[in-house]
Amino acid sequence: MDSDTPQQSLLDSLVIEKFPAKLWSLVNAPAIDSVSWDSRGEAVIINQCLFEKEVLSQGHCFSNSFQSFHRQLNMYGFKSVHGKGIKMGFKHFHNPNFKRGYPDLVHQLKRNTVESRLKAEADQKTDKLPHKNEKFLKGGKGSASPVPLKNTMNMDHRAALPPPVSQAGQEMPVHPLCLLLFIFINLALLQNLLAML
């Protein structure tokens, strides 16, 4: 494939964040037993011992230690899920942009850098700064009660969409762009595997 074609450009842009694409392929691969979705499709479950044997020791494009793999998950915003019902030796990880049936969210996973972390912390600090009219708003002569405004700028666009529903005997509709993204991610994984041979 010529690197100047639009398909290759799209493929290259999708491969920029390789870790999420590889993880998506693994969790959806029927041949891989060590990684799966939780029952709701909102978290990734990893059988650590089996994962080390089945994936890490086989050189499936990840590092060879689970600790390093776990660090990568953290860098992409995955959080460990703890609680009752989690079997010993199994690790659960959650990221709101990594859900079963939503391959189009994978491109939103970006590696956290020092700069992005510092920016997020700075944004949180500016949210906590006192209002310039705080004295006026708190009370006293001529005071007024503050009226909380609803912030509509941070609305989740997916909240307006119904979740995909699959009933027995019915196929779940797939958006063509989601299918295209899934195909390109798998092509990228295949290309990486072939390059390793």
Automatic annotation (TrEMBL):
Query: InterPro entries in the record, alphabetically?
Result: HSF_DNA-bd, WH-like_DNA-bd_sf, WH_DNA-bd_sf
Alphabetic keyword roster:
DNA-binding, Membrane, Nucleus, Transmembrane, Transmembrane helix
Q: Which residues cross the membrane?
A: 174-195
- Position of the signal peptide: none
Which segments constitute the HSF-type DNA-binding domain?
A: 15-112
Its annotated compartments are: Nucleus
Q: Which family does it belong to?
A: Belongs to the HSF family.
What name goes with this protein?
A: HSF-type DNA-binding domain-containing protein
